[in-house]
Amino acid sequence: xxxxxxxxxxxxxxxxxxxxxxxxxxxxxxxxxxxxxxxxxxxxxxxxxxxxxxxxxxxxxxxxxxxxx
Length: 69
Fold this sequence. Notes:
It is a single chain. This protein is mainly β. It has one helix at 52-56; strands at 10-15, 19-34, 40-48. Strands 1-2-3 form a 3-stranded antiparallel sheet, with no helix packed on it. Strand 1 and strand 2 form a beta hairpin. The longest helix has 5 residues, at 52-56.
């Protein structure tokens, strides 16, 4: 891990829990799901690469937004 990336590097991992893809090695999102009895279950899932922090740090170029036609 390079010091200037602060751990935000691409790695192979599960995307949306079902397919292999590039995810950030550092970022994760907490997910809460409530079942029929309103009992919560919580887990974390990885964030797709590039994460927002990688874009802000300049590790990858910012995506371009196409104007609506």
